[in-house]
Amino acid sequence: MLTRIYHKKDEHFNIEFFQDKECRQAFNFENVKNLYIELKEGDITPLSYIFYSNFTGTVFVSYFNDSSSIENFSLIRHMGCNTNIKFITIENDIFQAIIENCKNVNLVNLSFNLSKYIPTDNAILFLNEDDADKYSDKCEAWFLYQENLTPRELNSQMDIRDYKKITIFIESYTESEIKKTIDIAKKLKEKYGIEEVNVFALHCFANLDGGDDYINAFIDKGNGSAVYLFFEEFINKIITTNSTGTCETQNKKRLQVIDCYDIFNDYLKTK
Q1: 20 to 30 Å CA-CA from 260: which of 4, 29, 206, 239?
Q2: 3-state SS class at 75
Q3: Can you give the C-alpha Rg of the chain in angstroms?
Q4: Tens-level pLDDT at each residue, the chain (271 residues)
Q5: Rounded to an integer, what distance in angstroms lies between the CA atom of residue 87 and that of residue 245?
Q6: Integer Cα distance of 191 and 211 in angstroms
Q7: Residue 239's CB: how many other CB atoms inside 10 A?
Q8: Distances (CA, A) of 264 to 111, 116, 165
Q9: Is-contact 153 159, C-beta < 8 A?
């Protein structure tokens, strides 16, 4: 069973852990084997405090996106603190760098079952070979995107035109990737006759908003500037996770945000 742990800084900027979201009841690490923690803006400082606790189990972390993660993990490994803790995360940009630079940090990448979260009867369209190599294993039908989608059989003898429903896979959904998926969805519908185009984004960096008949995205660019992106009719539904903390968990007709807690719990059930 996966146990949620919440955290906040006290008046001296030390990290305190709690059992409840409101941060009222102190957390008791005793008899807990698997922790799930949501980092704020990717800051791994709370993990260093767990190193100094009496916890010796596994910590599930949805995303590392703080540029100081490598430095912090490197520092932790030299401080003689608890190195029996195991960390499990979902694949992300900083993961491999931490593995290479912090040899005694026990960090494991989750084998993510993409097919479980894709709408029924959808073929998967990967935009690059790296993503296809990592996530296509359990997908019944998948294709690799090309500028001109001439028949290229990567899975049996199928062609993308055999499918009326396509889900585009994106590992990190940024402003540029959002614009790219809209352009590709438009081409799939107008040029190749695809009736339904969905998007699955593993990590989302836009604050998405959606309902029964709309989806849009708000991206804070800092310095008081922001950009709004509108998906119009080309993308039918976006499915993503709450890994980066930009999107709240929800399940609407055109927008679904999956709780990483549930993804990790599904993983534990197979162990």
Answers
A1: 29
A2: helix
A3: 20
A4: 899 999 998 888 889 999 999 999 999 998 999 999 988 776 777 887 887 777 888 989 888 765 555 555 555 555 445 567 788 888 765 556 665 555 556 777 777 788 888 988 999 999 999 899 888 888 888 988 887 765 544 444 567 778 899 999 999 898 899 999 999 999 999 988 899 999 999 999 899 998 888 898 888 777 777 788 887 789 999 999 999 888 999 999 999 999 999 999 988 887 7
A5: 19
A6: 27
A7: 19
A8: 10, 13, 28
A9: yes
Q: Per the structure block, which two tokens stand in for 87?
A: 């960390």
Q: Is 114 helix (H, G, I), strand (E, B) or coil?
A: helix
Q: Under DSSP, is residue 198 helix (H, G, I), strand (E, B) or coil?
A: strand
In the numeric block, which tokens belong to residue 266?
A: 């599904």
Compute φ and ψ for 168, nearest 5 degrees.
Answer: -85, 130
Strands 225-230 and 215-222, bridge-based pairing: antiparallel
- Which two tokens mark 51? 């190193």
Task: Give pTM, 2 decimals.
Answer: 0.86
Helix or strand (DSSP H, E) at 101 = helix 95-101
